[in-house]
Each structure stands twice: as C-alpha cells, then as structure tokens.
Design brief:
This protein is an alpha/beta fold. The chain is 28% helix and 34% strand. The chain has three domains: 93 residues, 3-Layer(aba) Sandwich (D-Maltodextrin-Binding Protein, domain 2), CATH 3.40.190.10; 76 residues, 3-Layer(aba) Sandwich (D-Maltodextrin-Binding Protein, domain 2); 78 residues, 2-Layer Sandwich (Alpha-Beta Plaits). The chain has nine helices and 15 strands. The strands form three sheets. Strands 1, 2, 3, 4, 5 and 11 form a six-stranded mixed β-sheet that branches. It has a five-stranded mixed β-sheet with strand order 8-7-9-6-10. A hairpin with a 3-residue loop joins strand 3 and strand 4. Helix 2 runs parallel beside helix 3 and helix 8 runs antiparallel to helix 9. Keywords: Amino-acid biosynthesis, Aromatic amino acid biosynthesis, Lyase, Phenylalanine biosynthesis. One of its GO terms (biological process) is L-phenylalanine biosynthetic process. GO terms for molecular function: prephenate dehydratase activity. It catalyses: prephenate + H(+) = 3-phenylpyruvate + CO2 + H2O.
C-alpha cells in the first residue's frame, strides 16, 4: 500500500494498481492532487478507509451497466459502517497500448484482465494475436513498461498509459460504447459533514417479511415524490428466506427525504442511512 507522498495530497484508498479505473474515478472526484493507496482487494479498501491514519477516503466500484451490481461490495458496505459521500459514473474506455515506437504489426500477444479482453473481442478478432489473461489491467501496463517487450500489447486505461509511459496505439477499442461503472466515494461516519445540495440518498432496511410489507415501504417513498433509482435485495444469513434491501433515492429537497424516512421507519425492523450525497454525472 502507498504512503502519503506530499503534505497537501489526499490519501485515497483504491482497489488495484496505479493507473486503474479506480484511480481515474478517484481523480475525477478529488482532483489529480491525490495519492492512491493501492489495495489488493475491496475488503482491504474498506479496512484502509476505516483507518484514519492510512486514508482520507476511499473509492469502490458498486455496479456496471453491462455486468450489473457487484453484490459482495454491497455486503462490505453494509457491514463496514462507512458512509457514502459521493459517486462517480465513469465511461470505461479500453485502449491498446505498447512500448513507444512499437508498430501494430509487431504485436504477437495482448495481455489484460479477462473482462477487458471480453469487452474488446470485436476489435481483437480482427487480428491473430495470442490473448493472455492477467489479474489487472494496470498491472499489465506496469509489467509491459518494465519488460520493454516489443511484441506485447496491453489493454488498459489512458491513465495507465500516462503513468507507465506507454503509447496508445489504438484508443477506444471496446465493443460496447456505453459501458459505465458507478463508483462510490466512502468515508468514516465521524468525518462526514452535511453536503450542500445533496439530492440522493442510499438506505438499507428489512421488514418483518409479512405480506405486502415491502410494497408498503415503497408506496410511502412514492407518496413524497421521491425517485427510486435502485432497489437491490439480499438474503439475510441464517433466516428463513428473509431479505434485506438497499435502496437509492433521488429527491429535489432534503425535506422530502426526511419526510420519507419518518414514514417508512415504523414499517421496517431495521433502517440505516448509508449516505446522503450529490448524484453523480456521467463522465
């Protein structure tokens, strides 16, 4: 894991290596004057964010327009007690990069994470390259820069090309051009301040599982003209087919949210507000 390098830099925990899409999302939210605290797993990200000495905040992917929700990350969020203080919707652009000066015809192998390779099959099928799956897109870029191999290309982010001084020989080679990932910005509850202009909230709750109990909650939310942008269910471990729910709600006035919470609290057995923040924009 990285340590803070400069006095004015924010330490932001991310999953993956420098040059990853998580780092791009972190820079989008916090600005480029931040230091990426690279973590091997999402569980490690949570641990680092919980430790005030190691980080100022963290970034964690939560869903993708192609792959859907990252369910284990919802569970990590709910158990951690961390709060959502923002979000970033990032268009995932996959780029083929090589060491500087290497022509396309010299490439024999392309290395990247399996998901990145799958996202680029239409372009890759036009060539007879050997495809090599790796554990991380940014790590592939880092290894290529170190090896100086003139016959290997990697698929990674534009940021990875900048960090490792690689040449983007074929940018934007992903097949699906509308591939967005939603990243959550997380912080410790004691460090959260009220966000001016907040218009979105994430809550977690479960009901007594009686007939129509979920519908009653959703109807109350609808009564105050709040838009339900996400409803995700999770089985409650050890229960007899009972479920908890994560809900994202969009509102125009914070009073709407408070009114909704007042109305649904008596209808739930447990209710937690995981964050009140500003809705992200597509980047």
């Amino acid at each position: 894991m990285n340590k803070k390098n400069k006095p004015n830099e924010l330490n932001i925990a991310i999953q993956g290596y420098e040059g990853s899409f998580h780092q791009e999302a972190a820079q989008t939210f916090f600005g480029k004057n931040m230091n990426a605290v690279c973590c091997d797993t999402f569980r490690d990200v949570i641990k680092v964010v919980l430790n005030k000495k190691e980080s100022d905040a963290g970034v964690m992917a939560i869903e993708n327009t192609i792959a859907g929700s990252i369910l284990p990350n919802y569970n990590l969020l709910h158990k951690s007690g961390l709060k959502i203080v923002g979000e970033v919707y990032m268009l995932i652009r996959q780029n083929l990069m090589v060491n500087i000066g290497v022509p396309l015809e010299d490439i024999k192998e392309v290395h990247s994470h399996s998901m990145a390779l799958q996202q680029c099959f239409k372009y890759l099928d036009e060539h007879r390259w050997k495809l090599v799956e790796t554990e991380d897109t940014a790590l592939s870029a880092k290894k290529l820069a170190k090896s100086k191999n003139p016959h290997v290309g990697v698929i990674a982010s534009r940021l990875a090309a900048e960090i490792y001084d690689l040449e983007m020989i074929a940018p934007n080679i992903h097949t699906m051009k509308n591939n967005y990932t939603r990243f959550l910005i997380l912080n410790r509850e004691e460090d959260v301040v009220e966000i001016e202009g907040a218009n979105k909230a994430s809550i977690y709750f479960h009901t007594d599982n009686s007939k129509g109990s979920l519908a009653k909650v959703l109807n109350k939310i609808n009564e105050v003209d709040i838009n339900l942008s996400k409803l995700q269910s999770f089985p409650i471990p050890g229960s007899d087919w009972k479920y908890s729910f994560h809900v994202d709600m969009e509102f125009s006035d914070i009073k709407q949210l408070h009114h909704a919470l007042e109305m649904i609290t008596p209808l739930t057995e447990e209710l937690r507000v995981n964050g009140i923040y500003k809705k992200g924009k597509n980047m």
